[in-house]
Structures are given as C-alpha cells and as structure tokens.
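Q: Predict the assembly, please.
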Amino acid sequence: LATISIIAAVGLVLTGIAVAAYDESQVARQRLDAASVEAGLLAESEAGPLAAGDAVAARQALAAVVTYPELEAAGVYRADGAPLAVWSRRGTRPPPAAVGRTGPPTGPYVLARAVGPAGRQLGWVYLRATREPALRRLTRYGGIGLLILMTALLVGALASVNAALVNAHRRLRRAMVDRSRAEAELRNVQRRQSEEEMQSMRKRGMAAFRRYAADMEFALAAGQLGGWSRDLRTNRFTASAVFRAHYGYEGGGRWLGTADFLARVHPEDRADHVRAVETAIATGGLLETEFRTLLPDGSVRWLMILGRAEHDDQGQPIRMAGVSMDISQRKRSEDRQRMLLDELNHRVKNTLASVQSIALQTGRTAETAEEFESAFLARINALARVHDLLTKVAWEGASLADIIAQTLAPYDGRALPAGRAGVSGPDVRLGPNAAVTLAMAFHELATNAAKYGALSNDSGRIEIGWRIERGAEGELLEINWSEAGGPPISPPKRRGFGTQFLQRALAREFDGRVNLRFTAPGLNCRMRLPLSAKLRLAA
Amino acid sequence: MIADPLSGLRLLVVEDEALVAMQLEDMLGELGCVVVDVAGTVSRGVALAADAEVRLDGAILDVNLGGEKVYPVAERLAERGVPFVFCTGYGLSGISGEFAHVPTLAKPYDAKELRDLLVSGLAAARGR
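A: Predicted assembly structure:
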C-alpha cells in the first residue's frame, strides 16, 4: 500500500511537471504568436532592403520593431547567411552572428522566417521573444507545485491512514485467527483433560471393582460359600463353581439353569423350597431356606440358601442373588447332639427309676430307719461308682475285672486286706447296662459277705472266677462267687433285696440263671449268663 | 364294693433294667395284677408275645432295651390283639410314628401314674 501511495505521489508530481511544461509552452506560444505579427511586418518591410542589400533600411526597420516589449533580440540576414542588421536588448544574448543555409535556429521564444516571395529566398528574419519573468514563473510553478504537494501529501496521508487501517485490520484479523486457534487449542486441551479424567475415573472404578470382586471371591471361597444370582426378568441363572459343586455339578461343563438345580433338590423338600423363594421375591424379604439335595449317586447333602431380591422403582422384582452353604456337617452334629441329649435323658430317667426302685425295695425289707439309711446309701453309692467307671470309658462299656475290683476295693469304707479275695478270669467287656446291673449284684454279694459271710471275720476269703463256655446255644459267661472261712451261715428267713435282685432281676435281665447256695464253707453264687450282644461289648 | 378293674389282669413286662423291672413287678403285684413273665431282651419279649400258649391281657413295654427298640414285641402283641402300654426314659417324643397313639408312661413313675395308665390303656381294652 505504501508502494501504491508512493507511485500515486510520483504520478502526481510527474503530472504536475507535465502540466507545468504545457503551461510553459503555451506561454511561449502566446509570446511567439504576438512576436510573429511583428515578424510578418518585419519580413514584409525587409523585402526591399534585403533585395537591395540596404543595411540602413534594415536597421530602421529593426528599430521600429524593438518598441515591442515582448522582443529581446532581432536580426536580419541575407540569403547567404550574413547579417544585415542585428539588435538585442541590453543585458541579453545577441542574435546569432550568422545563419546557415537553412536559416537561423528556431525554438521556444525564437522565431525565424524566410523573407522573399515564394520561390525566391531573399534572406532571413530572426526574432527572439523575452522569457517570462522569473518571479511570475516561480509564482505560477509554486502554486501548481503547492497544489501537487498538498495533493500528494493528502494522498500520502490517506495512504498512510489507509495503511494504518489496513495494518490494524490485518492485526485484528491475525488476532482473531490467533484467538480462534487458542480457543480451539483450549477446547482440545479441555477435551483431552476430561477424557483423561474420565479414563482415570474409569480405571479407578475398574480397579476398585476388581478389588471388591476379588475380596468377594476370597470371602466366598474362605467360607466355602457358593455364589448365585438370578435375573428375574430373563430368568437367567448364574452360579459359582462352589454353588454348582453343592448341587453335585462338579467341574465346568454346560450352562445350568434354575431347573437343573431344582431337579437336585430332594423331592420331599422341593415344594417348601420353591415356596420360600417365591415368598422372598414377592415380599423382598430375606430368603433363608434349608433343604436336602439328592445327588445322582444317591447321597444326600444339606444346603442352606441365603438370598435377597432386588426391586426396581416400580416395585417389580428384577434380580435375586445370594449364597449357598453346605450345612451337612452342622446337620449331622445337630442330629448327634439330639441323639446324645435323648440318650442322656434316657440314662438319667433310667437312673432315677433305678434309684426309686432301690428306695422302694430297700424300704420294703429294712426294719429300722437306720438300717434303711445305711443300706440305701450304700446301694446309691455303688450305683454312683459304677457310673463313674462308665463315665471314664465314655459309656463305652467296662471290663468285668474292673467292676469286681471296684466293688471290693472301697468296700464299706475300709480297704480290703490283701489275700481276702481272689479274682481271676479272661478279659470280658460289658455293655453299660450290664455293667450297672452286675455292679449292683456284686455290691449285694459283697455287702452280704461283710455282714454275715466271709468278710465278717478276719479269716474268711472270697474267690471270684469266671470263664466263657461254648455250648450248643452259643457262648455263656459263668461267674462263680465262693466264700469260705466265714462264720457258719444259714439261708435267710426272708428274701431280702439282695436275694431278690440276684435271683429274679439279674437272671431275667440277661435271660440267664443265678444259683444261690448256702453251703457249709460259705455262700456260693453261680451266675450263668448267655453272652448276648447286650451283655458283652467285645470279648 | 366295686371290683378293681385291674384285678387279675395277666400282664407281660418287657424291661431290661433289673432294678426297674423288680419295682414294676412289685407295683403290679400290689395293684392285683399277675405278672406272667418279665423279659429283659427283645428276642425273649418276642418269643413270649408270640407264644399263643401264654394267655395275656396286656403288656407293659420299655421302649429302649439296651439300644434295641421294643417295637417287634409291640407288633406281635398288636397282631394278637393284646393291648399294651409303653414306658420310656426318652419322653413322649421318642415313640416312632406307628405306635405314637399308644399310651405311654414316662420314667420315673409312681404307683398312681402306673395305675391310671393301665386303667385307661389296658382295662378299657378288656372291657370291650
């Protein structure tokens, strides 16, 4: 743009110069036009003198011309070029000293004209007009120059303003471009940032979820829990490996649905199980069912299912999930617990019944309160001791030798002197009930011996021996209780508790026979008891 | 004088605890009953219950005989139409389904409880 303005300014200056030159030539022509009239007059007037070569006449003619103020020099020349008369104003250049064949030179402010009629050259007239005065020319050129200068300045100023505007515009556009670029960049950065943030959030979320899932898996595995979930809209069922194993579906294999698992629920428990699940879905409550599974190999397993249904905003059930647990072990121990409690209850009740029986029977035969008390307490004591013995072996059965030793050892509060009793026989283990009954029987025999028999003096002796006989009706346990060395005895006048217990109760309980004889050396009691499962635990 | 409904009843006792059997025998004697026999094992109980020669008006059965259940004896008696009652240390829940309706006496019991049970469980059956 500056270039254009410079070109414009230069153009203007050139135009100005052209205008000035034109103006200058116009001025010159006007002066020459004015001078040419004089020249014509001079030429006409010079024809004669020239033809005659009259220099005086020529000078006179020139003198007339010089009155014209526009001329500064004039000359008259002959046809051969020699001057006839010349004139010039003082201080100006004189006309040419001679002219050539073609006459004097011409130019602006200079006029040369041939003199003579046509076809006959008599000579030449030379006139030179005055130039315009310098001051006027200066004024004239100055005005134009000033105008041109002003115009050029204006153009320059406009151009400069325009250039400034253009520049400003360009800067503005650049700024706008820069700004839109910056904005785009900012948007890019923001987008990248938010994308990065989203990605990092996703990553964090995924990491947290994976940790949670791993924790869940560990917890389930540690608790031997199976995990399951069921989409209630599509009925799609998802089960963990442990859950599948609970239902006897080991390993991988095909996808399994609700029906596959339901098929393995024990037929007797199936309806209850289904009802529990439906109720939990309908009410949104906790599902807690215990049921048996019946596996293809015929084995039964107890499972517990815990779960809860999820509902949407409209209250429609959408999903149900939970855990499964193998509670077979718990059920077994519950059963065992119940059995043990039943057994304990049975034993306690039987023991109480025995105590009741002892009390009644003792009361029936005792003659005084003191006699009742000592006999009753001794019998309860015997009962308690054999219970102790059985408890030591966890009610698994006691050996016959132990029972006899226990009956005799703490007998009547006194230690039995060495050599007063001989005990011999093979190892026989008795069941708990048999142990109690035989312990009571030996207690009665020992009590009787202490009161009336071999242990009532200092010299008596008891031999207790047993053996196993193998007869036609199976094995038989024969126990012999023989007393000797005691005071003379006689059969009792009435059948006391001990006698009745030995002869009636003991014999009946074991389907055996008990012989009680009061012989001369002392009491002899022979028990022949079939070795049934009841009597013997293990031979 | 009103005739005692239990008087002269011929009863079988199946009880494995010697002491308890003795007491039961005495109680029944005092009630005027005749104890035909006391069986201490299931096999002996079954033999007695199945023996048509042995005339029985009723039976008192201990449920648990040294780990064995007395039900085989109960089945024989039921086949013969002989009424019976149970006595048990297990409590009433210990009786299996088939005999759940049978009158049952929980150990330990006294003479009055025994008498009431016999009147309702056995004597009534004889009256039919």
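Chain B has a mean pLDDT of 84. The CA atoms of residues 71 and 97 of chain B lie 11 Å apart.
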